[in-house]
Amino acid sequence: MSEAKATPEKPQATDNGQEQAQTPAAEAAPNLDELRKKAAERDQFLDLAQRTRAEFENYQKRNQRDRDQERQFMAGQFVLDILPVLDNLERATAAATQAGEKGPLVQGVGLVQQQFLDLLKRYGVTRIAAEGQPFDASRHQAIVQQPTADKPANTVLHVVEQGYLLHDRVLRPAKVVVAQAMPQPSEEN
Predict the structure, then answer these.
(1) Are strands 12-13 and 19-20 parallel, antiparallel or unpaired?
(2) What is the residue extent of each domain of the chain?
(3) pTM, whole model, 2 decimals?
(4) Residue 113 class from Cβ within 10 Å (0-12 exposed, 13-18 middle, 19+ buried)?
(5) Is the per-residue pLDDT at 2 higher than 70?
(6) What is the pLDDT of residue 189?
């Protein structure tokens, strides 16, 4: 068997008789530029894919948060519709107590009122603490100001209609009477 020996490439003759050397570096230069362009294009598409994925994940999180919040507050309108019933139960027990009634009917209405409050509490509805508190326009609705020397100005003196929160959001503000500073007597000389 004869061994094949590698022979170096010989320069090729051109039409004008000059020899032209074909080097691998000369052939690779256009391919290298093309590869760089392809790599830059690949990087651009990879960046676009990563951004699109991140935007989609953010969209999913935002959508989930909106749905959770909607579920949390969807009972709001229903609760607003039944609050007048609770107000009437409170008025009935207050009128009976004021008249000195303590019979089973008054006790039964009081129990129904308490069941209503317990049910609302299970769904995240709580009363706004108002009486004796500083007036807060975001939670209280002042229906009248009353001059008084007993309490500091802008203190809630009396609650006319209870206010309610639904998970820290005001569902209905408390209607209140607010203390007003007593006018100072004018000094005449």
Answers:
(1) antiparallel
(2) 25-73, 75-123, 125-182
(3) 0.62
(4) middle
(5) no
(6) 47
